[in-house]
Specification:
single chain, about 800 residues, alpha/beta, Rossmann fold, 6-stranded parallel beta sheet, 27 helices, 22 strands, about 35% helix
Length: about 800
């Protein structure tokens, strides 16, 4: 195990303090310049209206504080030779992080056209929040970043995810006081209960209190200082407080706090790694309290700005039109004394760069922020070792997720030494039948462990916490720094992370367009305990709509799979765990489910994404089918096959085709999604003009949305979940939503031309069974024997 680096306090000399202040002033100048200037970047001539951008966009208020933290991180990283990553949490902090990346040279190395000289500075300024340029927040385009700075709340969870299984890494995390008001961030403070000082790196939270959000004060900044200190201690941290508005004294205090924090971290890690000291440590946290918009205009138009909410975005507006504002902007920019910070050619002078680390120690150049560079393929064993035997379709049953659990346990065991695979979930790993994992690892837990507890250990790699936000944030941070993972959740409650997955999808979409960002492992969801098997928990647990949400997103990034049995689930899992730069959603059941396909057939079917199950239908290939029964999802597949069996028994002359869909995006046109079928492919499965009765796992209108451009869409009738749920029997769930086999047979009779009159008695018999079902479950509390005991009869 790598020993933690430790170096005693190295208080900065007066010369070093002068260099720190020079670096900070340079970063502040560059941040302000990005917001305002189109040209004249070094102010070699008096500022004129034409030098100012026509639209002033960006956020100044948070930038001086972020620059201050970056400067001091540079110092300790260089002095201690640390491998470090920083998560920049405050929203729209782009000017600061871009400024520092340019100063240290990592930006010009990534984008050679933005050179570290006067021309490059001009380009840096002009491109910021400008058409064809870069966003106003920390984004994928920003070297050294793994965290989108637009939506707030996820920085600390991302930081802990990055530190997991990274024993030599320091992850600093700057948390804005506005961000600290969000629910995900509030829960993230508990992440220290899951950080193992032996196998994981360290997270250093830096809570930056500048007092205001866009227009209101922030809660934590207004708490009495002793109460805030008690709050952070209650979370299990040892706070170090730095505050003030005098740069010299705050520089000194910040340097001391950083040294103290890193000494404590090194001591914690040394004790755990060399002396075997266990028990949850109290990790340090720095509370930095500085004015919002520090060093900016103190007053504008008679109103206070620095230290108030007015500095949040653009402190001086209408600079082109207002001569006084133009004069005030020039005075502000010149107050940083750029002629001392940059040579006549625009290059930073040596004093400015004295604190900057070298090479990959620079925060903008760390490979941990470009995790694909560090990624290794997972050792996935042959699926045949875990496949279930299928002698005859639909006669044996297995729990698909339990079968998958065996595969995941093997992967977990085979990555024990390299430690780059984790499974996360909100308290449901065993409930979701993945408990085979506990044969390979335990659940990580740093608090007390009681004799009655099971499968808890300080070094486990299964992570359970009853916060989907934390699970998502940990996994995102883990993946973006070059590792692999799997997120299992109850289907209904994964909606809690709708907004988080939005941001991750946007990150991946943008990253894929940047040649310098290496592909990372995909974010893989397993949604189980799904809508059709939540009959015992009731309506609150019944919601299959996450798939709809995902399929609204960037088609080059999102994939959705509904494997109908255990072997298809294995095949899909093998695929998604090998994939890169996607968000994969896999919906599969944990209850006993019929085995339909052998492993070989499952592989072939999953490779197709959608296909005809010849053995299930009665169209023999010599004529067109009279009707197509489509299905997607395990329970809809069972109901379609039961309906096909009823049609074979009652209407033997009817030519029925059964089409199963595993990859939902196959239903889309090729031009709308890379996995989409061409029209000839689609028509070969579903025909151009025959009735299609489609049984779908989720909300039926999604199928219509995916297939609305198809020639035969007018002949498609979709059954699915229509928000009719309660606590009832499994089969009653499908009856309530008209997805049951008897209703599907009735749909066929209603929609095949000429069949309604000829098969009237069959339709009536189907309706009678549904009526009998209602009476039966109310008397017996169980499903009809012919349903409960059904298996594929042919």
């Amino acid at each position: 195990m790598r020993k933690a680096k430790r170096q005693g306090r190295t208080a900065p000399t007066p010369e070093e303090l002068q260099g720190l202040d020079a670096h900070w002033r340079a970063a502040n100048y560059l941040a302000a310049g990005q917001i305002y200037l189109m040209s004249n970047p070094l102010l070699k001539e008096p500022l004129q209206p034409e030098h100012i951008k026509p639209r002033l966009l960006g956020h100044w208020g948070t930038s001086p504080g972020l620059n201050f933290v970056h400067t001091h991180l540079n110092r300790v990283v260089k002095a201690r030779d640390l491998s470090a990553l920083c998560i920049w949490g405050p929203g729209h902090g782009g000017p600061a992080v871009l400024a520092n990346s340019w100063l240290e040279g990592s930006y010009s190395e990534t984008y050679p056209d933005v050179s570290r000289d006067e021309a490059g500075m001009a380009r840096l300024f002009r491109q910021f929040s400008f058409p064809g340029g870069v966003p106003s927040h920390v984004a994928p385009e920003t070297p050294g970043s793994i965290h989108e700075g637009g939506e707030l709340g996820y920085s600390l969870a991302h930081a802990y995810g990055a530190a997991l299984d990274n024993p030599g890494l320091l992850v600093a995390c700057v948390i804005g006081d506005g961000e600290a008001e969000t629910g995900p961030l509030a829960a993230s403070w508990h992440s220290n209960k899951f950080l193992d000082p032996v196998h994981d790196g360290a997270v250093l939270p830096i809570l930056h209190l500048n007092g205001y959000k866009i227009a209101n004060p922030t809660v934590l900044a207004r708490l009495p200082a002793p109460e805030l200190d008690e709050l952070l201690r209650g979370y299990g941290h040892d706070p170090l407080h730095v505050e003030g508005d005098n740069p010299h004294s705050v520089h000194l205090a910040m340097a001391e706090a950083m040294d103290t924090a890193l000494d404590r971290i090194a001591h914690i890690q040394d004790e755990a790694r060399t002396s075997g000291v266990r028990g949850r440590p109290r990790w340090p946290v720095i509370v930095l309290r500085t004015p919002k918009g520090w060093t900016g205009p103190a007053e504008v138009d008679g109103e206070p700005v620095e230290g108030t909410w007015r500095s949040h975005q653009v402190p001086l507006a209408e600079v082109r039109e207002n001569p006084e504002h133009l004069r005030q902007l020039e005075a502000w920019l010149r107050s940083y004394r750029p002629e001392e910070l940059f040579g006549t050619d625009g290059r930073p002078v040596p004093e400015v760069l004295a604190c900057v680390p070298d090479g990959t120690r620079r925060l903008g150049a760390t490979p941990h922020a470009n995790g694909g560079l560090l990624l290794r393929s997972l050792p996935i064993p042959p699926l045949e070792e875990y496949a279930v035997p299928v002698v005859k379709p639909g006669t044996s049953l297995h729990e698909p997720t339990r079968v998958l659990g065996g595969l995941l346990a093997r992967i977990m065991a085979d990555t024990a030494d390299r430690r780059d695979f984790r499974v996360v979930g909100p308290d449901e790993t065993a409930s979701n039948r993945l408990d085979a994992l506990y044969g390979s690892t335990d659940k990580v837990w740093q608090e007390a462990i009681l004799p009655t507890d099971e499968h808890l250990a300080t070094d486990g790699r299964v992570m359970e916490v009853l916060s989907e936000h934390l699970c998502q944030g940990w996994l995102e941070g883990y993946l973006l720094t070059g590792r692999h993972g799997f997120f299992s959740s109850y289907e209904a409650f994964v909606h809690i992370v709708d907004s988080m997955v939005n941001q991750h999808i946007k990150w991946l979409k943008t990253s894929r367009q940047l040649s310098w960002r290496a592909p990372v492992a995909s974010l893989n969801y397993l949604l189980t305990s799904h809508v059709w098997r939540q009959d015992h928990n009731g309506f609150s647990h019944q919601d299959p709509g996450f798939v709809d949400h995902i399929l609204n997103k960037s088609p080059e990034v999102v994939r959705v799979y509904l494997p109908p049995d255990a072997n298809t689930l294995l095949s899909v899992a093998d695929h998604v765990l090998r994939s890169r730069d996607y968000v994969n959603v896999v919906v599969a059941g944990k209850q006993p489910c019929f085995d339909w396909l052998s492993m070989a057939d499952a592989r072939a079917h999953c490779a197709r994404g959608a296909g005809i199950w010849e053995w299930a239908g009665t169209d023999d290939g010599t004529r067109e089918p009279d009707v197509v029964l489509g299905c997607a999802g395990d329970v809809p597949t069972m109901e379609v096959l039961a309906a096909a069996a009823l049609l074979r028994a009652h209407l033997p002359d009817l030519a029925v085709r059964v089409v199963n869909v595993v990859d939902m995006t196959r239903l889309m046109p090729r031009e709308a999604h890379p996995h989409g079928m061409t029209d000839p492919e689609y028509d070969a499965l579903f025909t151009r003009d025959k009735p299609v009765i489609f049984a779908y796992h989720g909300y039926p209108w999604l199928i219509h949305r995916l297939a609305y451009r198809r020639t035969g869409h007018a002949d498609m009738h979709v059954r699915g979940y229509k928000e009719s749920g309660t606590t009832t029997t499994p089969f009653d769930m499908v009856v309530r939503n008209d997805l049951d086999r008897y209703r599907l047979v009735m749909d066929v009779i209603d929609r095949v031309p000429g069949l309604a009159v000829r098969a009237g008695s069959v339709r009536q018999a189907m309706a009678d069974v549904r009526t009998r079902h209602h009476a039966w479950i109310r008397e017996h509390g169980t499903d009809l024997p012919e349903v409960a005991d059904w298996s594929w009869p042919y």
